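Researcher: Sequence recovery benchmark, item below. Answer with residues only.
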């Protein structure tokens, strides 16, 4: 919807409410009682945080002004978020400043139901992706040095229940379950070269290196492991 259309629409709603004499509880403003922030659009690019403070302080004590700027250039993007000490000041601000002219530009002022700074949103999204990838293997060993730049979770509580401890532990997150070398190749049988102490493939070997199984004395057909057994 066009910003000017939104400005006019809000003005019409306010006029109708005033004509009907609606109470605060019945007003459309009541939906936003939980937020002390207002959105300000159409901000002249020359305006600073101090200028916005001077304009919006007419209707209450301002506690935060977030004039959104381009990260690369530092220039204003033409919109901002303003917070009041008293949430009721947002109603006065919307009713009186929406559609007002500031330096020749009509500004749009509206309520914000759930306000979060862009930086907070970015961090939440990154954390969500880390959780989806699972706990950092190096972090579990106390060796991760990537810090916040790591793509995997560094959640201490989750790390304690990933299955890297005792075998009886039941990992809460399915993709955190240990799939390490001790389980590798179990379906293929014990490595013949490993039984002779000659396997040089280590963790890359597709057969089991389970010592307990190996000492039982029953190996897997060597020809079968080479896919040449005719039995």
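Model:
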């Amino acid at each position: 919807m066009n910003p000017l259309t939104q400005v006019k629409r809000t003005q019409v709603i306010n006029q109708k409410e005033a004509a009907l004499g609606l109470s605060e509880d019945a007003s459309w403003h009541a939906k936003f009682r939980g937020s002390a922030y207002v959105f300000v659009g159409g901000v002249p690019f020359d305006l600073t945080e101090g200028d916005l403070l001077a304009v919006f302080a007419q209707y209450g004590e301002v506690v935060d002004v977030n004039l959104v700027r381009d990260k690369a250039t530092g220039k204003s993007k033409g919109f901002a978020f303003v917070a009041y000490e008293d949430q009721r000041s947002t109603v006065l601000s919307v009713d009186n400043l929406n559609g007002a002219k500031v330096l020749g530009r009509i500004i749009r002022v509206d309520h914000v139901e759930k306000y979060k700074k862009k930086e907070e949103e970015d961090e939440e999204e990154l954390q969500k992706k880390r959780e989806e990838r699972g706990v950092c293997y190096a972090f579990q060993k106390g060796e991760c040095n990537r810090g916040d730049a790591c793509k995997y979770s560094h959640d201490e509580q989750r790390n304690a229940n990933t299955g890297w401890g005792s075998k009886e532990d039941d990992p809460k997150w399915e993709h955190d379950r240990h799939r390490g070398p001790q389980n590798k190749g179990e379906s293929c049988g014990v490595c013949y070269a490993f039984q002779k102490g000659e396997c040089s493939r280590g963790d890359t070997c597709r057969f089991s290196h389970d010592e307990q199984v190996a000492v039982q004395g029953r190996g897997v057909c060597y020809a079968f492991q080479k896919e040449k057994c005719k039995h």
